[in-house]
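Schema walk-through. Below, the input block comes first and the output block second. Nothing else is stored per chain. Lengths vary across the set, and this one has 344 residues.
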Amino acid sequence: MDYKSAGVDVVAGRAFIDRIRPVVEATRQAGVIGSFGGFGGLMQLPNGLRRPVLVSGTDGVGTKLELAQRHDSHYSVGIDLVAMCINDVITSGAQPLFFLDYIATGLFEPEKIARTIEGIAAACVKSGCALLGGETAEMPGFYPPGRYDLAGFCVGVVEEEQLIDGHLAADGDCIIGIGSSGVHSNGFSLIRQIIESVGADYNSCFGSGDLPLFETLLKPTEVYWRVVERMLQTKLPIHGMAHITGGGLPENLPRCLPQGLYPALDIASWPRPEIFNWLQQHGQVPERDLWHTFNMGIGFCLVLPSGATAGEAIAICQEFDLPAWSIGSIRSIGRSGYIAGLPN
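--- output ---
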């Protein structure tokens, strides 16, 4: 017996490393030390910081992977992986520094994994961070052939005095919602159940525009760093930020507010993407469950002082081809974690 007969091909693994090397090195940023392939990734902190605070985040893609792998959509879930981590880290006002990935699979398939890493690298470039390292684990007998799982890890940095933690939020602040690119990477256990119940196939379409169902569902998560970076550069007075992931607006928006404040939303202030209507109709999903599962068209929120800042923030979003709306305000009467204006 040898390692290959047990299901692990180390020779193929080495060839794979050579293949992805240029993709990974294309993400190199200022401060990266050394070359690709070491035991640990090295990166200097940016110059000029007096009291730097490191901000870290980790996440995966969830059961969206099952749908993506079934339909051979590997590049897009690589983008999802980075976006889910980066969008969390930047809510503190942190600049993304570097990203690490972990890929575990039952049978190493270089083409699939390479496409996934290409997606990861593309999202890193879009986020201005380095793909500093990663690990691909071949685990025959643990994962079935043809399946892999993903985990991502991101580290960013922010000057301590510029840290955004919600403590400046006040009664009357406005809430800006930035549009999502679709369902992003949450709620796919429910989505898959709905798809199976209606017998939808890869060629199924939906909505008034007869849109491809699976292409819409597998559209990768939007990466919001560049638009947030521009707002920080223009000194927009951001009081809080929230990445709208699992649990939707009800669970995520209150996380960026201090005790005693709550958001009040006008849910008619932005258009609901048709995909959520399709999911609700075909899954007979109660309205409340819909809001507590999906982002409903809002992928990222900003809390800003009331006044002209709302218009400035929306204009910056539009520069990056991201739709944005003033979707509500912050109030100081009510219970913690409560959102007014949503279905009970």
